[in-house]
Amino acid sequence: MNRILVRPPRRKGVRGVLAAGLSALLIASGLGGATAAAADYSQSAASLNTSQAQFSFTPSTPARYVDIHYTGVPGVGQQNVRMTENGGTWRHTVGSLSAGTVLDYWFTYEKSGPQYDTPHFTYTHGGSGTTVASPTFDPPGGSYPSARSVTLSSATAGATIRYTVDGSTPTASSTVYTGPITVSATSTISAIALKSGSANSPVASASYTIGSTQATCPAQAEVPDFGPNVRIFDPGMSASSIQARLDADFNAQKDTLTAQFTERRYAHLFKPGVYNGIHDNIGYYTSVAGLGQNPGDVVINGDVTVDAFNESDKGVALQNFWRSAENLAVVPSSGSTRWAVAQAAPFRRMDIRGGLQLYPASYGFASGGYTADSKVSGQTASISQQQWYTRDSSYGSWDGGVWNMVFSGTSGAPANTFPNPPETTLGTTPVSRDVPYLYLDGSGKYRVFLPSLRTNASGPSWANGGTPGSSLPMSQFYVVKAGDTAASINTALSQGCNLFFTPGVYHLNQTLNVTKANTVVLGVGYPTLVPDNGVDAMKVADVDGVRIKGLLFDAGTTNSQSLLTVGQAGSTANHSANPTTLQDVFFRIGGQIAGKATNSLIVNSRDTIIDHIWAWRADHGNAGTYGWTINTGDTGVVVNGDNVLATGLFVEHYQKYQVIWNGQNGRTIFFQNEIPYDVPDQAGWKSPNGLNGYAAYKVGDNVTSHEAWGLGSYCFFNDNPSVNLYHAFEVPNRSGVRFHNMVTVSLNYKGTITHVINDAGAVTPPDTRPSNLVSYP
């Protein structure tokens, strides 16, 4: 096997000097992600004098630590401070305040091992003090087949909740909430929370549709208007007219310097047939897909290409993010298709009748990548790719391996030889279900195909003539286009509709609530959801069979607790026969805007399949959108549900643990990670156990069963190369917790990682060479 040794890689973009103010450090805290219960604590804020206020937090269970996070001090960014404990109450004093200064604050606290995060509170200096936290509803509003018992709560201890059920606005004289409300008919509950000495909460509402069956989506068009950003091509069109449209889109989206953070988005959809002489170069936020039921229904005699296209790329493909190819057969003009990509660039359901080159034509660096449910008749060559994951596919042969090449259920994959060469190969994928996808049926109507669940899968799902599964007509999908709001999208969901997101950027002033079992949320062309005013972008109820595919969650400028949450905290229902799947779902904090989110993804539901995500806290982007105190984010992925499987987990640059896995019987096949580049100093970057830094992948202390294969974590402490991470992987020492084929690397030898996992594995060597460990324990 030819192994190309790459030069020390320059990762994602040349970094400028960070803005002043990096002395505001993220103080250590522990396991995070779970939402706090109001009964766990009491908190208060009180003015001490004209320029100072004291914040107090009293946990009901003694805590090893409590951190306060706050924004709003004039001229200072977000502050994250370990509070001081005395007599069971933790306190911190904030200065530099003046009359009318408004602080947004919240707490992180430890309770019996795990870490919990409170909702946000508001304090106005010289005003009426804190604002009571708005009531929350469990279960959330939505469509239900029978009556529901709805519990209201406020995160403010001691608050009284008053509510209405007749559509009127609740006041201080409305009905007092004393216990669960039985909702037996369609209605809306509106509620406020009150507490003496604090400002009343904003009004919160939840609408419930109750019927003998789930709500039925009002009939939508079976040949819908997909809007101006979806290009639909027909084999009857001239090749020159198709090529002109493709070239115009590519020229708009190709440039790494000007298009990487644009709001333009496109989808190129090809109706069934043969297309000759077509060359589709794929730029940022562009999806290309066939509209056949199987890949061979659309044949392109030409090329679908990603390369280091721009002079500014200098021959490397380290920033070729956010683009995709799906459900096509390609007969490449030169014998091989080139797909030289980095993260968030899936290559799915592709039939390549020739070779596949995963590296730039220049042989420059690349940092991908993901292939699934595909067939390549010739050789697939990774060459300068740092890492790659292939699931349920077929290769003629494979060549290449730099640090971490992983295969599951893939014929033609190399033998399991990690670390020399660094190939990790599993014969099958334990559980998989391919993505939902749009296609045209024989009558010219659009439908969405829903592939069946597979166990111990190997090879493409369509290898024997067609993907097993079922389909839904577009008449059951609400097509989300420019002009849609969170309210219009939630209305469609409450009516029982599935969602089809077209390319665009959608700002949300309320959480999207997916409550109906088997709901499909499908996006093309990287539709981007931006939560405004600190709301969580999307919540999925603990129900069977929800499928979410092809979305980009981009954190808003006011901190969200989570961008996507699957299942309520404490969910225990068994979904093994029909799990929720998250596929090609991407998260971004910063880069486009100065986004903030405590967690990107929280998974509480059992049996969820996480199939290819990239959660990224930006290390570069538009000016003023990134930096240690600017685009803040604690953790990328928190898994609390049992029996969750991750296939293709990419998580980078978060400020605490990158991944926290608290659920039992979890499994991960392929993990790629970079530790944050911009840690200011070691003193402010220590985990709760006192060790240097936060592990990339933390398995909860109470977990007794967990297994993972093919994991890589890289450090590049560019702002302070003296920073050290004690270990990349932190797990309990139990026989049921097993890790296989791990690698750590210090990129350009900027800082070090002392151990690979716990106290095992050697320190990262110089010269961007890996430290490998085959198994643990």
List the helices and strands and how they pair.
Elements: E1 34-35, E2 41-47, E3 53-59, E4 66-71, E5 79-82, E6 84-86, E7 89-94, E8 102-110, E9 115-117, E10 121-124, E11 129-131, E12 136-138, E13 142-144, E14 148-153, E15 160-164, E16 175-176, E17 181-183, E18 187-194, E19 204-210, E20 230-233, H1 239-253, E21 266-270, E22 273-281, E23 286-290, E24 298-305, E25 323-332, E26 336-338, E27 347-352, E28 355-357, E29 370-372, E30 375-381, E31 387-391, E32 394-399, E33 404-408, E34 423-426, E35 429-432, E36 437-440, E37 446-451, E38 454-457, E39 469-473, E40 477-480, H2 486-494, E41 498-501, E42 505-508, E43 512-514, E44 520-523, E45 528-531, E46 538-540, E47 547-554, E48 560-566, E49 581-589, E50 597-603, E51 609-617, E52 635-639, E53 645-652, E54 659-661, E55 666-674, E56 697-699, E57 706-715, E58 724-730, E59 737-746, E60 752-757, E61 770-776
Parallel strand pairs: 1-9, 13-19, 20-21, 21-23, 22-24, 23-25, 24-25, 25-27, 26-28, 27-29, 27-30, 28-30, 29-31, 30-32, 31-33, 33-34, 40-41, 41-44, 42-45, 43-46, 44-47, 45-47, 46-48, 47-49, 48-50, 49-51, 50-52, 51-53, 52-54, 53-55, 54-56, 55-57, 56-58, 57-59, 58-60
Antiparallel strand pairs: 2-3, 3-7, 4-5, 4-8, 6-7, 8-9, 8-10, 10-11, 12-14, 14-17, 15-16, 15-18, 18-19, 35-38, 36-37, 37-39, 59-61
Give structural notes.
Pfam families: CBM_56, CHB_HEX_C_1. Residues 36-125 form the CBM56 domain. InterPro entries: CBM56, GH29D-like_dom, Pectin_lyas_fold, Pectin_lyase_fold/virulence, SACTE_4363. This is CBM56 domain-containing protein. The chain is mainly beta. 3% of the residues lie in helices and 43% in strands. The protein is built from 2 helices and 61 strands. It has a 15-stranded parallel beta sheet that branches. Strands 40, 41, 42, 44, 45, 47, 49, 51, 53, 55, 57, 59 and 61 form a 13-stranded mixed beta sheet that branches. Strand 36 (437-440) and strand 37 form a beta hairpin. The longest helix has 15 residues, at 239-253.
